[in-house]
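Weekly structure sync, notes
Attendees: PL (lead), two postdocs, one rotation student
Agenda item 3: pending single-chain targets
PL asked that the sequence for the first pending target be pasted directly into the notes so everyone works from the same version. It is reproduced below exactly as submitted, 270 residues in total.
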Amino acid sequence: MIILLNESGQLGNRLRSLSNLLALGIETNQAIWCPVVPDELKKYINMKVQTRKIPTIYFSYSKIMSLMVKCVSKVGFWKTSPPATRKINIYADWISFAKPELTYKHYDVLAEYFGFREEFVQHCSGLLPQKNNENEMRIAVHLRRNDYKYWNGGKYYYENSVFINQMMSIYRENPNIQFLIFTNDKIEEDAFIGKGFQVHFMNGSAFEDLCTMSMCDYIFGPPSTYSAWAGYIGNKQVAWLRNKSHVYKLNEFERVPESMEKKKQFWELE
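Predicted structure, written out during the meeting:
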């Protein structure tokens, strides 16, 4: 059995840790127990696989299992890196066992398990702006602010002009697009209006925005597990603005699962 004791960060990090946990369980054919999964996940995520058999997964809190964990952890059952070879392998956090190549190897199973529930997908589809023609592309702009003002010294806390320059470049490359802006902070919407391109401001919940973002054709923004997860679960192409002076072309965007296998970087922000 593989046990993960602690939840990790916000929504994107939690989904990242759980996907790595399930990938390791599939790879080593071990049951999984993770008592820190928020009940809210179960409202929106499938959390089941019908196409193949997967390891048994326990998400509920159990006093008996918690006591067992405390006992075995005192006798040296802690693991610091995969593979998990003991009968009971306890991890304090997902960093200890993360292997991006496994989330690529078992992508089909993970995408089914962590896919959004059908009724929720239908709900979120109704939140998307209508297309003007069938070939029009939707491009998600993840304008991450708020906590990014302080995280990593504000390295990725970009001003509006960084996003506008990127949007203008893409629009000149292909004008048959609409931009959907997702943000966790209040922004000056007027700064993005009147630039020639279509722009829509999404104001859903964290789960609604994550689902609708995963339905877009392309995603760009500063490095974030939130947008990375949208690209991963939607199998979409993403560009992370690691350098605000670099303006990406559409052919520079990378599909998330394949990039995780080649570069092993989409789960590794810094």
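Discussion points:
- The chain has ten helices and ten strands.
- Residues 75-82 have pLDDT under 50 and may be disordered.
Action: rotation student to compare against the earlier draft before next sync.
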